[in-house]
Amino acid sequence: MGDKNSEKNNDKNGKTDYGKAEYYYNRELSWLAFNNRVLEEAKDRDIPLFERIKFLGITASNLDEFFMVRVASLKDMVNAGYTKKDIAGMTPAEQLEGINRSTHELVGMQYSVYNKSLLPLLAQNGLMVVESHEKLTKKDCAFVDRYFQDNVYPVLTPMAVDSSRPFPLIRNKSLNLGALVSRKEVKGRRHLFNKKSVHGKEVEFATVQVPSVLPRIVQLPEAEDGTKRVILLEQIIERNMDKLFLNYNIECSFPFRIMRNADFSLEEEETEDLLKEIEKQLKKRQWGQAIRLEVEEGIEKRLLDIIKKELMIDERDIYNIPGPLDLTFLMKMYGLEGFGHLKNKPYVPQPVPEIEAEDDIFEKIREQDILLHHPYQTFAPVVDFIKQAAKDPQVLAIKQTLYRVSGNSPIIAALAQAAENGKQVSVLVELKARFDEENNIVWAKKLEKAGCHVIYGLVGLKTHCKITLVVRREEEGIRRYVHLGTGNYNDATAKLYTDLGILTCNEAIGEDATAVFNMLSGYSEPLGWNHLALAPLWLKDRFLYLINREKENAIEKRPAKIVAKMNSLCDPDIIKALYEAAAKGVKIQLIVRGICCLRTGIEGTNDNIEVRSIVGNFLEHARIFYFENAGNPELYMASADWMPRNLERRVEILFPVLHDELKEKVWHVLEVQLNDTQKAHFLQADGSYHKAESKGKNTCNAQEVFCKEYTALTARKEKAAQQARTFRPEYNQTIQN
């Protein structure tokens, strides 16, 4: 920024006013920039082909959720006449305009990558995607017609529209085929329906939903040269539309797909039964306001006009797609057999060195705090922690928070078993975990049935913290064992998301954990905390204190530095504090995967802030915070990002890394990511992200480094055990006995 802008943004004391809108990026446009970074992975020719198609599928899935929640929320604001500006100075209407422009560009790039790069490469590597049923051979036609008759036809429900049959309710995210049909002239037969005229013909609108219960990818008979070939289900249905509307000519047929507003609000204070109210709201999600329409490029104008009118869609919310709608099918295509050579070699999470398979986990935790690093290390110790507690006769109580769990969760099963074994089991199941509400309702009911005390979250807040407390009777008295983590208790996503956790029996942390659960179940707020800091009452102030302490250290010429890793950064108070700290000389390095409303290159901060985003094979999900503290570094981990929703509207936990050995391990995680030269994208002063371009011997892919390090650690341990067996024959005899 120039001198004039600097003067304009200074207050009367000459200090820069970092609250000005020009110092912030818009949250939604920043998220779209993140999805563009994911798309960059789909474009990267150094990545195996099937990994690239997976990344492209992820961008489509991301975009769906973005529209259902964020865009829907903005549309609600515009419809309500809400004009308040965000931290970047944009009204809801201006944000929608920017989103619309950026999203059309993003979708255009998605299909450019799909059509011009990925499809030809797939064909070269033995997988042909037949783009249209019109390109099928005679033999293929016979195959797909038989497939349609045997597998698809019985499932379909064709819907015609006339005065007696209104336009059908089109489900959210469903893929449909819309058609204009005209009656075949059959002598002596009266026609039952009213007609609309187009191009001189009497036509009607008809539609059929492509069933999601059937595989969308259908494999055709293998070609003579061994090429595998697939066709999409909607193409098979489109070819056979005449069988669905007998006595009609199919004038035209095109796929379409809509996105609906899936964001619902609850009047929690007025709700007597939160579970029942959420169940009721979930049913409405399928029929919310249509906010986005995808149609195949070249769709008949009359057909489009009917769909647009009935769904009340604005022209700017229509996306003409030059290819198959809904690219999330690519994530299913990733699972096709026979293409392992076009994928990354599967990584097997390694065992945690401190815990053997048959160990007493409570004994191991008493020996030392244990750091867990997923998915590089197995999630099994977390599951075993609950399983052993469920069976251990000395365990009196288990208390746990659950935000998102897997479909067949071993943790849920262990908690249910614990209750059946007579232990006191208290579980907070967050019913408001977006898009997991239905799953969590099922688990909540199962836990209640098993005898667990189930809490359905807190009124007005989401409980997002990840904490488990096991209370155990021992010779010395009652001891509390605690697990604290940055990620969910989900054994499935623990193989895909990078997260950290700690197992400890630290007495002070145990006291804090008890206070957490007393607060969640009985609304009792403790007078103070030993080590933990909780949102929404204490956590934000704690972060601001830690940032300002670094600023004061810099002013006093003491060592001052901040390294923070998170998913998103958009809290204006935190950003302002970071600007002020940087202006006083604090070196700040941020690793922010997704949304980042902070700008770099701000006048007065002396380029002391660096922001990078890492997009790799695993989803970066851990939250880690390092503060130099005048040469006595402090390290923390948390369930929270630096976002207003995390700091002000959720129950979140910040917990310290207390032991020097664990501090070194956690710092190593940050250090390796700060050295990443292959997957890191750096935020520029103009708001763009540039991917690091480093070739040769000094390249670093942080995720690959961790995979190699943990694999090597396991190998060294196994080698040492083998040597022990070789040089101590009595060892084998002991094992056999």
Topology readout:
Layout: H1 3-8, H2 27-43, H3 49-79, H4 92-124, E1 127-130, H5 138-152, E2 159-160, E3 175-183, E4 196-198, E5 201-209, E6 217-220, E7 228-232, H6 233-239, E8 248-260, H7 274-285, E9 290-296, H8 301-311, E10 318-321, H9 329-333, H10 361-367, E11 370-374, H11 380-391, E12 395-402, H12 410-420, E13 424-429, H13 437-450, E14 453-455, E15 462-463, E16 467-474, E17 477-485, E18 497-504, H14 507-522, E19 533-535, H15 539-555, E20 561-566, H16 572-583, E21 587-592, E22 609-614, E23 619-620, E24 624-627, E25 634-638, H17 644-648, E26 650-656, H18 660-674, E27 680-683, E28 689-691, H19 702-727, H20 729-736
Which characteristics define this entry?
737 residues; alpha/beta; Methane Monooxygenase Hydroxylase, Chain G, domain 1; polyphosphate kinase like; Endonuclease, Chain A; 5 domains; 8-stranded mixed sheet; 20 helices; 38% helix; 21% strand; globular; disordered N terminus
